[in-house]
Specification:
Strand content of chain B: under 5%
Shape of chain A: globular
Structural class of chain B: mainly alpha
Largest sheet of chain B: none
Largest sheet of chain A: none
Distance between the termini of chain B: 28 Å
Number of helices of chain A: 13
Largest interface: A-B, 33 and 41 residues
Oligomer: heterodimer
Number of domains of chain A: 1
Order of helices and strands of chain B: HHHHHHHHHHHHHH
Number of strands of chain A: 0
Radius of gyration of chain B: 21 Å
Shape of chain B: globular
Number of helices of chain B: 14
Number of strands of chain B: 0
Helix content of chain B: over 70%
Order of helices and strands of chain A: HHHHHHHHHHHHH
């Protein structure tokens, strides 16, 4: 799939083993690079839970006046929901990916992917996998601590099928998050400055992914708006799956729709990169 | 001590700069730059406004399920909207005047460009803090002011005995300035730590996470007796009111307008002034301490 863009077809002749070795090396280098800032990472992870603290108190005050449930959520459900979206975001959020791609296009360093037999999207994907692996390695501590402290908010463990569906939704949220953001970054081939566009995307992402509140709390016309968007899979969907809000056939079809969205953005990335490279002109050294 | 000597030497060579005029020049230059990339400016204004609308939508949603936040706290819908408008005013002003500069400051330390700022015959903290004005942030301030007036109007017409006195109108902007100063002090101190840490993305983000506590009425930090939330909430409330007074930055001005009769207001208001002075002085000390440890990048 990635050969299409290679300028140098020597890599095409390389054995599968050689390719795996190359990607393995890239992955290792990326992991080592990431580990340099592990202190920064651990601190960052722990801090990311601070807004949950305010949510616990805010919803606590709200539920003091509400008997029972809000749109099917008890107080415990809501807090469990926020914690689960943190897990989902740990998979789906891609800090700096789109801006990084756009930046490389702008300052011309994108050239290195054009002259080396390395596919840009593939390289960035591995880079991100390395980033995430290191992140989970470091973040597992803070996550375990917070989930242990907040264990009372969670209902008893869901059935095995739900756990499998949850894991699948997390894995797919990583892919969806990656290809969606990469596609946005590639817009940089057409518009040199995409920072304001990224900001708009970030806003919509925060709201429509369900990071701000459970999307099914929204009243009638709005729930259809968010259901039509791929963003819900980045945070809301995995959390709703764990909490048993989406089950049975509905769950299966939602997972297929998510897979279709991933495919859609993979194609978009490929097409955008091909066309973008054709448009791109680099000058000087 | 070192910088005192340097300042004296500077004053002998250069006359004291007119800070007001320098600031106006900064503001004008930033406006010229913003107007050069006009479409970017418009997109930025609209996107920060939509962020506010999203938040407002979230609270409208909450108030469709309950009519007050907490039990007997007095934060009914329009009182809470006064609070929300105050959050927006304080934050948008911090974003307009200080946020781009604090970001730039860390970058200047990393790249060694701080050298140029140190050479200029003007107070370094002033130069670093106010060099850029992000005019698009003022869109939010404008909308927040409209929301404030609207909510106060609603309270005035719907709540018996709700009055606004001139003293409140004078004290409100004063405490807004105090709030901005508290948040600014924390921000500049955190970005100054890049002198020691080199890369401090986490610490800069820390500012967002800490100030997140200031975005809600202080009454929410509590819980039913016997629950762990009670003592955790109380501790958070005390810590963020008295040690790092970010909780006072919005709560004090907002309560002044929305809940003027609350018995705790006087002590909080007095402490807020004290907290502002201490925050600013400590951050200034910290800032110059950081500058003394600054070694250029040598390029």
């Amino acid at each position: 799939m990635s050969q299409i863009t290679w300028k140098d077809d020597r890599a095409l002749l390389a054995t599968l083993q050689g390719k795996i070795a190359t990607w393995g090396t890239i992955l290792r280098i990326c992991i080592e690079e990431r580990l340099v800032y592990r202190g920064d990472f651990a601190l960052g992870t722990l801090m990311r839970f601070l807004p949950i603290v305010t949510q616990i108190f805010l919803w606590g005050s709200i539920f003091q006046n509400v008997a029972g449930k809000i749109a099917g959520y008890t107080y415990d459900n809501i807090i469990a929901y926020y914690l689960l979206t943190m897990v989902a975001r740990a998979f789906s959020s891609m800090p700096g990916l789109a801006s990084g791609i756009a930046g490389e296009i702008r300052d011309g360093s994108v050239k290195k992917y054009l002259i080396q037999p390395i596919d840009m999207i593939g390289f960035l994907l591995l880079n991100r996998v390395a980033h995430k692996l290191v992140y989970y390695g470091v973040a597992i501590g803070p996550f375990a601590l917070v989930f242990f402290l907040c264990r009372s908010f969670f209902p008893s463990a869901p059935p095995m099928e739900t756990i499998i569906a949850f894991s699948a939704s997390l894995f797919m949220s990583f892919l969806l998050g990656f290809f969606l953001e990469a596609a946005i970054g590639l817009i940089g081939f057409w518009f040199l400055e995409v920072s304001s566009l990224l900001f708009v995307y970030m806003l919509f992402n925060f709201f429509f992914s369900g990071h701000m509140f459970p999307l099914d709390v929204l009243p009638y016309p709005w729930n259809y708006v968010f259901e039509a968007m791929p963003l819900q899979y980045l945070a809301y969907f995995p959390a709703a799956v764990w909490l048993g809000k989406i089950e049975g056939d509905q769950l299966i079809s939602a997972l297929w729709i998510e897979a279709a969205w991933i495919l859609f953005f993979i194609v978009i990335c490929r097409v955008a990169f091909r066309r973008g490279v054709r448009r791109y002109s680099g000058f000087g050294g | 001590m070192n910088e005192v000597q340097t300042d004296t030497t500077r004053e002998q060579i250069h006359p004291r700069p007119d800070y007001g005029r320098v600031f106006l020049t900064f503001a004008r230059n930033s406006l010229v730059r913003d107007m050069t990339f006009r479409s970017n400016f418009i997109i930025e204004t609209i996107s920060s406004l939509s962020w506010m609308f999203m938040n407002l939508g979230f609270y409208l949603l909450i108030f469709s399920y309950t009519n007050v936040i907490g039990v007997a706290t007095g934060w009914t819908q329009y009182q809470f909207f006064v609070f929300f408008a105050t959050v927006a005013i304080v934050n948008s002003l911090v974003q307009t005047f200080f946020m781009p500069n604090a970001q730039e400051f860390s970058e200047m330390i990393r790249t060694g460009n701080l050298d140029f700022a140190l050479l200029k015959p003007i107070d370094t903290q002033f130069l670093i803090s106010l060099q850029k004005v992000n005019w698009s942030g003022l869109g939010n301030t404008g909308f927040a002011l409209l929301l404030l007036v609207f909510s106060l109007g609603k309270l005035y017409s719907e709540q018996a005995g709700f009055r606004i006195y001139p003293i409140q109108m004078i004290l409100y902007p004063f405490y807004i300035v105090c709030g901005i100063t508290i948040l600014y002090s924390l921000m500049i101190a955190l970005s100054a730590t890049s002198v020691w840490l080199g890369r401090n993305q986490s610490l800069y983000n820390f500012w967002f996470y800490i100030t997140n506590f200031s975005r809600y009425p202080m009454e929410i930090y509590g819980g039913p007796s016997g629950d762990a939330r009670r003592w955790i909430g109380q501790s958070l409330k005390s810590f963020f009111s008295y040690c790092i007074p970010v909780l006072l930055a919005v709560n004090v001005p907002a309560r002044l307008l929305a809940k003027p009769l609350d018995p705790n207001n006087l002590s909080l208001a007095l402490y807020a002034v004290f907290g502002t002075v201490v925050s600013f002085s400590v951050s200034r000390m910290f800032f110059y301490r950081a500058l003394r440890s600054y070694r250029s990048t040598g390029s």
